[in-house]
Amino acid sequence: MLVIIFCVMMSSLFNGLCLGLIALDVTDLRVIASCGTEHERGNARKILPVRQKGNELLCSILLTSTLANAVFTVLVDDHVEGWVAAIVSTLIIVIFVEIIPCSVVSRYGMIIGAKTIWLTKGVMILTFPLSFTLGRILNRILGKEISMYTKDRIKELVKITSSYTKMEKQEVDIISGALELSTKSAKEVMTPIEDTFMLPLDGRLDFETISNIVRSGYSRIPIYDGSRSNIVSLLFTKDLAILDPDDRTEIKTIVNFYNHECLFVQEDTMLNNMFVVFKEGKMGHLGIVYSTEYIMNNQRYYDATGIVTLEDVLEEVIKSEIVDETDDVLDNRSKKKSSMVRRRQMTHCLDLFLQDNEKSNVCISPQLRMAALQFLSSGMYRVFLKIERL
Predict the structure, then answer these.
(1) Closest CA to 224 of 216, 235, 233
(2) pTM of the full predicted structure?
């Protein structure tokens, strides 16, 4: 009778371990061993070396469980004859070997597996000649067990478990956005060339042009030659620091002096690659998106269709628009006006200070007009803000 009870216990234990240990994914165990609680890390580190021998572990457990069931059936048949033995052995195996162990181990598989790891290792040693051989054969036929998470699975895992892990929606969006960078191209997020603030190469940096640059709020201005799709250089706002608007300096002169190199990227360039280029900073944080390139007179030309900036890439990561005080629209797709634009439109009367001297009754210097404009803008801001709230 004691032998029968021992066989039932062994069969029950290893039948449960077959479900509990094999169901534990190697990748999950590595994650738990690195960032779980202290108790979970200890259990995962005990199980991981054994679980990595997947097919060998499976064969050892099944051999032991099958042997225990066979011995149990023979012993029951010796004590009970006929169909009664079949019914008794079936009920005992179903209840005490299948149902109870599987239901318990399905919830506490890691704890039970860690507590009985010494027994599992002992069984693997005893069955080594057969289990090792069968495991190698299975590895050769089925291949080694590979567990991995794709980007889509990780993204869905974060979304599904966010309510249980108390993750903020912004955190979930950032993780999802970062995983989606490699699936979005520069063409999808670029600012179209027709909506881009640009200056012609043959233009002059007079007071009106510099005022337009300042009011645009951009730090880098694309320069085109002839057609807007033919961008040849960039003009940095800081390049204007020492210029006198009265000199009406040619844009071409400033461009040739500083010679800022443009970063040209194809429309199908993925945003993860764009982020790497922008992060290095060697070519700046603005890229010219082009559809085709061609060579004429040993000179390479690009048919520009838009521009993409580091801000555009970051907006895709956080899945939200970054709006500052100089943005005219909230995003490039909906063209929805920014509230800052509506506030600036209330101050259109101040643009009178930017009129040409020849059309004004009172002649004042451009510098004085700019100073007056800035003073009145800063002084009237609170007034307009109160009016807007009414």
Answers:
(1) 233
(2) 0.64
Contact between 64 and 123 under an 8 Å Cβ cutoff? The reply is: yes
| Positions of the chain with pLDDT under 70 | 145-148, 324-364, 373, 376-390
Structure tokens at 217: 């709020």
Residues 315-325 have pLDDT tens digits of: 999 888 877 66
Residues 313, 357 share a domain: no
- Residues 167/173/179/180 CA torsion (nearest 10 deg): 160
Q: What is the pLDDT of residue 329?
A: 57
| Nearby residues of 5 by Cβ (< 8 Å), 6 or more positions away | none
Amino acid present at 225: D
The answer to whether the CB of 234 falls within 8 A of the CB of 220 is yes
How many domains would you assign to the chain?
A: 4
One domain, residues 47 and 170: no
Q: Which domain holds residue 367?
A: 346-390
CB atoms within 10 A of CB 353: 19
Other CB atoms within 10 A of residue 333 CB: 10
> 181, exposed or middle or buried, with CB in 10 Å at 0-12, 13-18, 19+?
middle
Q: Which of 285, 300, 327 is the endpoint of a domain?
A: 327
Residue 337 pLDDT: 53
Q: Does 237 fall in a domain?
A: yes
Are residue 94 and residue 195 in the same domain, yes or no? no
- The residue length of the chain stands at 390
Q: Which helix (H) or strand (E) holds 221?
A: strand 220-224
44 located within any domain: yes
Residues 6 or more apart whose CB falls under 8 angstroms from that of 349 comprise none
